[in-house]
Every structure is written in C-alpha cells, then in structure tokens.
Amino acid sequence: MGGRLRISLTISCLLLIWISASASIPSRESLGIAPQDLSYYKSDVIKCKDGSKKFPKEQLNDEFCDCPDGTDEPGTSACPQGKFYCRNAGHIPLTIFSSRVNDGICDCCDGSDEYNGNVNCPNTCWEAGKVAREKLQKKIATFQNGVTIRKQEVEKAKQAFAKDEAELSKLRSEEKILEELVQKLKEQKERIEKAEEEEHKKKEEEEKRLKESETKANELKKASKESSHDSTDQAPELHNQDAMEDHHDSAVEDKNDYTTETEISDNQAVGKVADDHDDTIAKSGHEADGRSDGSSFSHVEKQGPVSDSTEGLSREELGRLVASRWTQEDATEENNEVNTAKEEGHEHDEDESEENHDGYNSDSDEDHKFEDDDLEDDPHTEFGEDHEEPTGAYSSDEDDKADYSDLTVSGSSSWLDKIQQTVNNVLQAFSLFRRPVNISEAATVRKEYDDLSSKLSKIQSRISSLNEKLKHDFGKDKEFYSFYDRCFESKQNKYTYKVCPFKKASQVEGHSSTRLGHWDKFEESYRVMLFSNGDRCWNGPDRSLKVRLRCGLKDELADIDEPSRCEYVAILSTPAVCLEEKLKELQQKLEDMNTSQPSGHDEL
Amino acid sequence: MPSLADRSPPILLLLLLLLLLLLLLFFSAASAWKKDEFRNCEQTPFCKRARGRKPHSIPSLSAADVSLSDGAVSARLLPSQPLRQATAGDDPESDRDPPRPLLLRLSVYPGGVLRLQIDEDPSAPRRRFQVPDVLLPDLDNRRLWLPRLSSPAAGSSSSFYLADGFEAVLIHDPFEIQVRWKGSGEPVLSLNSHGLFDFEQLRAKKNDDEDWEERFRGHTDTRPHGPQSISFDVSFHSADFVYGIPEHASSSLSLRPTSGPGVEHSEPYRLFNLDVFEYVADSPFGLYGAIPFMLSHGAGSSSGFFWLNAAEMQIDVLAPGWDDPAAPAKGRIDTLWMSEAGVVDAFFFVGPEPKDVLRQYTGITGTPAMPQEFAVAYHQCRWNYRDEQDVAAVDAGFDEHDIPYDVLWLDIEHTDGKRYFTWDRVLFPNPKEMQEKLAAKGRHMVTIVDPHIKRDDSFYIHKEATERGYYVKDATGKDFDGWCWAGSSSYGDVLNPKVREWWAEKFSFQNYVGSTPTLYIWNDMNEPSVFNIPEITMPRDAIHYGDVEHRELHNAYGYYFHMATSNGLLKRGNGKDRPFVLSRAFFAGSQRYGTVWTGDNSANWDQLRASVPMILTLGLTGLSFSGADVGGFFGNPEPELLVRWYQLGAYYPFFRAHAHQDTKRREPWLFG
C-alpha cells in the first residue's frame, strides 16, 4: 500500500515537473504577472499603475525600473517596490517581494522566482499544497465544531445573563424590604438597650447607696472600680460575640476571615519588614535615576551610609553588584543560571516573593491582602479569586452558589413573608413597658436583628458583585459571559500562568505570585484580551499581558512568552471566537485551493 | 515596628536627614557613569608626577657612544652632568641610585618609518616587557641597513637617512630625536625637545620601609617591582590638529588640548582598556580599547607617532603656550606621553600626506583583514534573542517586511549558564538546525564567546585550563579568580602562544558542539572585564606567562584574545574561510583579526553624534572595520532617534543594531 502510494506520488511529481517545465515557465512578458493582471499589460504602451508614467511594452521586465511603483518590472528585482506573482499550481498562488527574484533562494514552491539558472529550485507545490490543504481542512473542521459549541455557549450565556439580571432585580427588592425590617428592629433594639441601661443605672445607684452605708471606704472604692472595669471589659466582648454571630450562618470562609485577622498581626510584622526591605530597593532605584544604580539593593544599603562604597563587600557580592548594573537585577540573583547551586535560586525565589507579595505566605494572608486592596473599592470585587483550584480551566461559580444558597434558593416571596411575619411577631410580643425588661424577649429581638442584618449585608454584597459583573462588556453575543467566573492556567517551566478574564492575570512560581496585569479591555474586535498595570518591573514598565484568542474546541491557555521585558503575550484557544463568517472564509479558501490544482492530480 | 528615627533624639534625626540629602545629591551627581570608580591622573602616581613637571626641570640625559651597529644607530643614555644634590623635593621617587645607562637604538624601515627603542641595560634586576606579536612578523627583515652616520656639528648630533627627502637626527646633549626635511631642515617630529623625558629604572627597594604599594578603592596593588614609569614629550611640527589614540568618547574628531592655556581642568587622554558602564559621550577617560597612535595634520604636512606599549598610558595634548605663555607656538602641537611600565618602542611616521602616515603605520602593524561579504551587511543583535522560536520569528519578520539583513546574533543568554561554547538545552535544543535554517536563506549567525571561564569543575574548558595551568595567576601565584557573567571565573592567559593555540582549537566544529560553518564569533568583555575588582578589570599585579605583570600588558589582553579566536576560526575553515570576529577590546594591530565596535553606548542623541568621531578615529588608526550599536545599547530610543541611527548606521563600516535586555523590542518593523 505504502509502496504503491509512493510510486504514484513519484509519478505525480514527475508529472508535475513536466507540467511546470512545459507550461509554467512563462514568457518574459508575463513573468511575475498575476493572471487577472495579464490584460493590463496587453497594450503596446503601458501605464504605470500609479499613473506617473507610461512605458513601451519592450521595457516590460527589461531589468530597468521605469515606474516608481514597479509596474514595469513585475518579473525582475529591478524595482524596489515591485511584487512578483508565482502561480504555485497545486498550492496557493503567492505574491512575493521582487527583491526575492533571482536572489539565490527558492521562495515560490514552483521555483518560478529563480529563473536565471544560478540555483535549481525543484517544484514542491504539490507536497506543500497537500500539507497546506490538510491543515486548512483541519482548521475548518475545528471551526465547524467550534461554531456549534459557540452557539450553545452563547445561548447559555444569554440565559445566565438574564438570570443574573433577574436575580439582581429580585435582590434589590428584597434588599429594600429587609432594610426596612432591619431598621425597625434596630430601633427596637436601641429602645431595649436604653431601657436596660436605665435599669442598670438604677440598680447601680441602689447598690451604691447600700455600699455607702457600709463602713470601710477603701474597700468600697475598690469594689466600685472593679465593677466599672468589668463593664468596660464586657462591651468589646459582647461586640465580638456579635461579630461571631453575624457570621454564624455564613459558613467557614467568614470564620477564616476572623481567624486570619488575628493571625495577621504576626504576619503583618513580617510583611512590614519585607515592605521596608522593598522600599529601600525601590527608593535607591529611584534615587539613582532609574537605571543607573539598579545595583543598590538592600543589603548593600545596610552596609554603610554611603551605599556606593564597595568596601566591606565580599568579592562575590562586589561581582554581583557590578553585574547587576547591566542586568538591573537584584544582585542576589544569579543571572538566570544555576550552577552555584539551587540555594541561590531559592534565595532569589524568596526575594521575589517578598518583593511581589509583601510577605505573603499562605492563602489566609492572601485573603487578607485582597481585603486590604479592595477596601476603597467594592469589598467583593474580587470575590471568588481565593478559591482557585489547580485545574487548567475552572470556575469559582460553585463557591459563589454555595455562599448564597440560602438566599438564592429561598429567594421566594414566601421566605420574605415569613421573615416579615416573624419580625412583626417579635416586635409586637415585646412590651417596652414591662419592667424589668424581659430578658428572653430582648434576646429574641437582638438575635432577629443580627440575623437579618447579616442577611441584608449578604444580599448587598451579592448585589454589588452582580453589579460589578454586569458592568463588563462580554462581547457582541455575550459569548465571553462564562469567562467571568473562570480562570485559565498554563504551566511553563517553573512558572504557572493564571489568566482570569475580567479580573487579573498572574505568574506563579512556588509561593510567589507576580501580577501580570489587571483586566483592561478587549482589543482588535474581541480577538485580544488586554491586562495592564501589573506589578512594576525592576526599573522597567508595569507588567502587561496580551492574550490572543484563537478558535479552538476547548478553552486552553498556551504559548506564554515575554518578547519584550515585562510585556507578556499568550494564546487562548476557545470556541468563543469560532465565528461563522471566518468559517465561510476558510471554506472559500479551500475551494480556491482545490480549483487551482493542476488537473492531473484528480486521479490521485 | 517603629523606625529608628521615631526613637532617636532630634539631633540624630537631623543628622540622618542630612545624610539622606547628601546621599541624594551624590546619586544625582553620579547619575550613570561612576567617575570616582575610575582612577584619575591625580590618583595615579606616575601620571601625577609626570604631569606636574615643568619643561627642562629634570636632570637631562645625553647620548654617548653613538655608533652604527648592525645597520642601526645605537647609543647609551647617561645623565648630562653630575647629579645635582637634593633634587628630590617635589619628586618623591627621584631619590635614586646613580642610574645605570639606558640603551638607545634607532632603526629605519622603508616608506619613512623611524623606530626608537630605549630600554635598560642587561644589569637591570628584571627584564622589562616588550609587547610581542603586534608588529608584523616580517618587520625585522624589512629593516633598512644604514650605511653611514654623519655628525656635522662637531659631534653634537648625528643624522642619518630616513626616507627620500627626510632625515633623522639624534641630538646628543641633552638627547633629542628629530625627524626633519632633508633640504630645509624643517622639523616634522621630535621627541624630548622639552626635556620631559623620564625613565624610572627598576631597582631594589631602598629599605624595607619603602612602600611601593598603591591603594585604590579598597584594593591594594602590591607593585612588587616598584616604580617603572616612562614619560616624554613629542612635538608635531607644522601641525594644526592631532587625531587618534582611541578609545575615547568625544564629540570632536581632532583631539582637544587637555592641558595648558585656555584649558579648564581636564584629565589627560587615558589609554586603559575598561568596561565602563554607561559611558558619557564626551570625556578623555579610557574606554574598551587602546591604540597609542597619534596623527597630526597641518597646512604643510601630516605625520604620525606610535608607541608600542601595553601598560596604562596617559597622554596630554598641550595647548599652545603651555611651555611659554608669552610666546605660544604657532603651527606646532606638543604632547606628553606617560606610561606606567614597559619600554620605549616608538615609531615616527614622516607622512607627508595623511594616507602616507596610515600606510606607514599599517606597514608595521598590518592592514585590516578582508571581511567576508556578509560581514559588511546589516547585523541584527539583541541581548537576547531568547530561544529558537524567537530567532525564527525575528528572521521571518525581516522577510515579511522585505528588510535585508544577513546576520543574527546571540548574546550571553544562549549558553548553558554562561559556559561559552555551550547551548542552553531548553532554549536552544537544536542549534545546528537553527543555523542551517538561516543558512538556507544565505544568512549567518554569530554567538558570543567571552574570556571569563566559569570555575565549574564539570566544565571541560575550566578543567583543561586548570590542569594545564593556562589561567592568569594572581599575585600569590594561584589561578586568578574573578567575577563576571559566569559568576566565579578565571581567565585564559592568552599572552602565552600555547594558550592561544589551545583556545583556537575550541572553535573546531568537533569541539564547539552545535556550531556550523555559518557560525561566527563575538568576543565581549575582553578588556578583561572583572566585576569585583576596582575599575572593573584584572588587578595590575596579576601574573602572566613569562612572569609578566598584568600592568605591563593590560591593554593588549583583549587583542591576544581576539587573535586567538580569529585564528581558531581560520583553523576551523582550514584557512579557506575568512574569519569574522567582533571584539570590544582592541589594541594596535587588532585590524588584522576582525572588527570592533564602540561598546555599550546609550540611546540618546549625544551618543549618536559621538559615534561618528569615534568610528572615524578608529578608521584613522587602522581599525577601519568598526561600528557603534545602532539604536544605542542602553535605554529606549524614540522612533526618530532610531530612524536617524539607522540612516547613519548604514554608513558605519560595521552595521549592527543591538539593545540591552531591559529595553523594549526594536526590530526595525516594530515602529510602523
């Protein structure tokens, strides 16, 4: 079978050579001219295409450039602006720069660009064309499937979008009702507290009177002091409990927040040190007018007040210091090479993590960091980021859903009615005029208040996160809607790249993560996603990432590169850009290729 | 954590602030080029002493026993009169033994070349270094045999034939060398006309307390052989301008005076091969290469002077009136030449046309090697083209935009951990295939090979060099261990012809795995650059082959390295393929081995401007195949600057674009 194929291929090649030898070497007049242009060159006096001149037919392809635009020399390299057409039967026709004509290098697969005999260019169009056609066919197949997937995705996206919008409007009305209820409860709670306070005061006064009647003044004083102390102590404790209760139904992750906050004081200290460390780096870099003194890194600064002094440096430190002028890198780094052991590489890792993450060591820290970051912004802008899982492409949707399940699932009016009822009952049941204040009733009011305000704040945060989401541009057909809750990952050597559309992109190495950019926008009519304003480069620009989108059946991130320092590029295959128009274009191209085949090949 | 300042009393706070302010001032003043990292003349004892002398202020020497021997003039130089008592005064090292005579020899070469050699007599405690392998090997065979010596004025001078129309004169007391027109007696060139000739002879230490050490920026130069400098004045008669003595960055082709009336404080022109970070565009400080060759040009004629000496050299161009403000000389330029060590081996070129001077100079140091055709075309370089994909994309970019280019370059990152002759296995897994793809389009590739050798026992080159003792030694006799790109590194002792041969072998296709016949070489960092030594170069007391101190040959180190590389490529191609080797360091004679460029310039207009006189100067001193990094190595050129630089660069003999790794990509089509 294989043998037969080879024989038939050989025959076809021979055939092809024969064809090209007999038919495809054109006369001087038609050299390098596209078939559709042949008529243009028919007359005896020909105009330059730019209208600047005319030339007689004898001067066509005479190796002398008459027309500034190269009209008269389509088949030679005489005109700098010229273009040479190769027919490339069996493959696609090609127009090349006329500088490639007879330059000793085969450019056209039919060899027509090298005709002066200096080199012999075999005709490779059939093989090359076959490969190209196969490639194109594959691409078309991908597009065909991709278009279908895209349609489904777009449908889903539209539904999801509508659902989100519906949820938003529902949440808004719930918010309104809840706000009212909470307000009522709050007022009631305050009244109770006021009453309690009065009661307490009375009691105290009574006690005071009793105590005054006792003999030892000193003891008395001491006792009263203690009691007042107790009461001040109690307040924050109570508050803490409130806080705990606030969160009591909001699952583990809020608790995490709480615990992190306490842990963080330690970590913060560490982070602070790292911060300081970074500051010196950054400052010295600036002082030195940007690039010139990239060498002043922290441990040198610390050596002495005049950081330029190289005395007291070990010979290795000095070497690194000087090298770092050219590399602009922290001199603890070992110029991307590894011999002097991995320890150094490791050191570097740590440095970097400090630099980029202000002492970030654990996930809980990261939570904390995000909160800090977003304080001035919406506190939930980046909600869900902390739940990234180490899969290629994943969604944080489930987490979201779990978090709000009690709201979305019970988002029926009956749920609200019930609450309204309960609140009203509570409010009515409680009598303000009974003294002493009924403790259990007061507790009910408080509990109800806490529950509801926690629910309210949840609804509000969900509203703001929905607002945040819906404000984005998700493409013509909202085809990128599902990207909002997803991240794409790709591992390249020691780095893992994470791209979270509409949010951010980062480069992760071990525990250190470098932000390549925040979501900026789509470019080139949704063919490029731009992330900008990432972490600042050492004496360089802010990092940025351009993700080029390509039609593919799966969402896959690949080919991350850094062609210029700190300017990253990547390719994301996704059905979202498998457009029908493009498919038609490709099909047309294949058709053209097939029709341009020399007739002798059909028998294959 | 409270900062220090929070706890400190206000005075301390104030002091801290002041210190900070000072630091800031310091940094802004020394923005890029670290002037104070390099020795100036004041900090260089031999330069300071020589520069401080007045004409005819030191005891003069006279020529005795002037005679012809072996077809050349020989004489002994002795003090003119008994040593005056207590001349020490301002001259701390003049407290010497009664000097031994110096041996003088004058010889003549065809075409108008006079050679003057002055060295100590054989009784000196040590042989002074004479730079080998710079002069053409057949030079001695070409020497003219002087038939006679005429002493016209009652033995006060001796004159002899130099070239048709020219004669050389040795004036006996005080000794002076003159080159002059035969008929008119008009002088062309002269040496020691101002009595500044000084030759510190080697001697034993006066007593054990005598301190010969020199300290600079925390480093001590042991100077075990003590002071040994040489200085003298050279006059270019009928000259309005002098040129040459690269390498300096300057906005002027002619050398501006560095001393004398009308000159504000200036350093002399320094010839000391150094890796200078972000050099400034206009300064007499030394850069990467040294050619101690000066040309003069005036209304009447041109002439030249070359001092074959590879030690640190400082040269003053003296403004008219420097010797006598009342009567400034017209149409004459005086110069003061100072060197830390070595001998006098000087050449006078009579001209009289500029092209004659150049012919005479290249007649002894050689003419430029004929470059291959591709080498004079456009070169595309960057630190770094990252991997094979990057290379392919850049190559395709040129085709796509119909921009001609012939050579693609790979900087240090292509190697496996800066072990030259190796490839990074991840980034360049198929170097041969990559080169062959380029070669299929008639293109070439250049990779970098620097002289620092990574001290890694698993690296075969380091292993071989260590085992065979091929490294330069430090002052204590151990292999010198310095810091460069590769980290801890040693340097091949390329003064040794055997080491050069060994190095050349490394370029064979068999030894340089992954190399193909279309791969050529770039020698960088060969000043040599050593990051952790003051002035970023090898210590002067490092020891080379034949017990030569680094101070004696420093300026020629890069030359020998360039030579070894170039010979390696010649061998590789069985002598049938002309080598292409770009070198950053250079010396007189480098033109025979390849091309040079002006090193790490910056992307600004001043440097664009300075590149023109710099490259013209190289051309005037024999290195006609030279260029500057198009676009500027450091920094990002604005599009207008880049366009202008390409326009200018097309006229550089060596036309290469290059850029630092931190700069934005600037392949020519990226600017629309």
Automatic annotation (TrEMBL), chain A:
PANTHER family per UniProt: GLUCOSIDASE 2 SUBUNIT BETA, N-LINKED OLIGOSACCHARIDE PROCESSING
Gene3D superfamilies attached to this UniProt entry: Low-density Lipoprotein Receptor, Mannose-6-phosphate receptor binding domain
Region (Disordered) residue spans: 194-406
InterPro entries in UniProt: Gtb1-like (IPR039794), LDL_receptor-like_sf (IPR036055), LDrepeatLR_classA_rpt (IPR002172), Man6P_isomerase_rcpt-bd_dom_sf (IPR009011), MRH_dom (IPR044865), PRKCSH (IPR036607), PRKCSH_N (IPR028146)
A Pfam family per the record: PRKCSH_1
Name of the featured protein: Glucosidase 2 subunit beta
Annotated Polar residues bias: 259-268
Residues of the MRH domain: 485-580
GO biological-process terms attached to the record: N-glycan processing
Organism listed in the record: Phoenix dactylifera (Date palm)
Feature: compositional bias, Basic and acidic residues: 194-232, 239-258, 273-292, 356-371
Secretion signal span: 1-23
Keywords: Coiled coil, Disulfide bond, Endoplasmic reticulum, Signal
Superkingdom of this protein's organism: Eukaryota
Coiled coil regions in record: 442-469
Cellular component aspect of the GO annotation: glucosidase II complex
UniProtKB/TrEMBL annotation, chain B:
Alphabetized PROSITE patterns for the sequence: GLYCOSYL_HYDROL_F31_1, GLYCOSYL_HYDROL_F31_2
Pfam family for this entry, one: Gal_mutarotas_2
CDD domains in the cross-refs: GH31_GANC_GANAB_alpha, GH31_N
Name of the featured protein: Glucosidase II subunit alpha
Annotated gene: LOC103697189
Signal peptide: 1-32
Keyword Glycoprotein listed: yes
Lineage: Eukaryota, Viridiplantae, Streptophyta, Embryophyta, Tracheophyta
UniProt similarity note: Belongs to the glycosyl hydrolase 31 family.
